Amino acid sequence: MEYNFLKIAENGNVCTLTISAPKSLNALNTTILNELGDFCDHFDCVKYRCLIITGDGEKSFVAGADISEMATLNMLQAQTFGSRGAAVFRKIETLHVPVIAAVNGFALGGGCELAMACDIRICSDNARFGQPEVGLGIIPGFSGTVRLARLVGMGMAKQLIYTGRAIRADEALRIGLVNAVYPQAELMDKALEMANQIAANAPLAVKAAKQCINDEYDMKAEDAIMNESAIFGCCFNTEDQKNGMAAFLNKGKCEFQGK
Ligand code: CO8
Asked: How far apart are CA 43 and CA 37, in angstroms?
């Protein structure tokens, strides 16, 4: 599929995806959602060991879902649009490699929700996060009510969603919505640095760790502990485990093959 709104770049085994709809501050319309879904469906999780998602320009990551497209939807159409976005974001959340959101400006509404579907969020110092939906007569519809509370706690999530207030990068850092804040000019280098650090580790182990963390979040502690033990054991079926431990014992460094 040819993409009209996605730019893809590769840097070794790290892939960078840039959402590019500058006229609307990268707001998500149906075409962009479809392109994102297709991108995830065809993403090569063997070639790439980490994905970075960012927005085009220096002003906006994603300024939300496209309000001009949503304005005239009826209930059924809105449900379809909402579930389409939610399904695409779930693909990102469950992609077999870690996904870093490099938030380079506004991350509002669907933009904040997209960032929250990623494994890790870092941002530039001009970033703004918020869920302004109630000011438009709607609620977050791309799983924002689900993920925001999980990330920052229920009390803070409720405050942000009920007030619709946008917060600055430093506040996002303080409440744990982002892991780090950088000057705009350094953001992508920092994202790449983190991605390379991830990519240097055993890819099957990183994938297994992601799956454990995602799946175990909703499990009872007993089940979660058993799940981790089972997957921990499976790591010992990989060449990466054998080579990684042998390299350590020989005081060397392992170039993991993902096998
Ligand atoms: N949708 C469509 N167009 C947008 C959006 C958007 N979300 N955000 C910005 N734009 C457009 C503006 O209309 C403007 O277009 P034009 O030049 O043609 O007038 C252009 O981008 C530039 O924007 P501004 O002139 O407004 O730029 P400012 O720097 O003055 O302001 C803001 C930037 C603060 C980001 C402002 O544009 C704004 O408030 N945008 C809307 C933010 C918002 O409310 N986002 C949430 C949308 S709702 C949502 O995301 C729901 C997700 C779940 C959907 C579930 C579906 C059922």
From this structure: 10
